[in-house]
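Page 42, continued from yesterday. The earlier attempt failed because a stray header line got pasted into the input along with the sequence. Redoing it now with the clean sequence only.
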Amino acid sequence: MAGYPEETRVVDVSEELESGVLDAVEAIDGEPSEVLLTKQDKALVDVISGTLGPVLTRLGFGGALGFCTGYAIKQASKVVATALGVGFVCLQGMQYAGYIEVRWDKIRGDLIKRVDTDGSGTVTTRDIKYYVTKVFGILKFHGPHAAGFSSGLVYGFRW
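This time it went through. Structure tokens are written below.
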């Protein structure tokens, strides 16, 4: 067939179109689309592109990367929180049964020494701000469009 690559095959979908299973095949840049969608698939594509499309077009490439990064951080933090929670339950259970003795006051003190950046002896908002700023600096270092990335990161984390 003229105008089509060799691997393109033409399929007769007239029955599906008449029965309403398929929507009309739309042309992309004047060429017939290679993907046939059911009406339900087309509705789903419209919802997804209608929801994410405006956000991604405003934020651009940097925003899209930021969104993906924020979403990944959110999912990873859930895994870490789950692991820490399960670990705590296991340690407490073993301590309750008399197998081990956990010195929570020592663990807390050692942890605070490691994360306390201002030397106050407690974890404060200043400490958290320090680490968040450090992470942002790492993620945006020579990255694409820092403003879009930051906005996308926040949006992805909240998604």
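Notes: Residues 14-158 form one domain.
Reminder to self: strip header lines before submitting.
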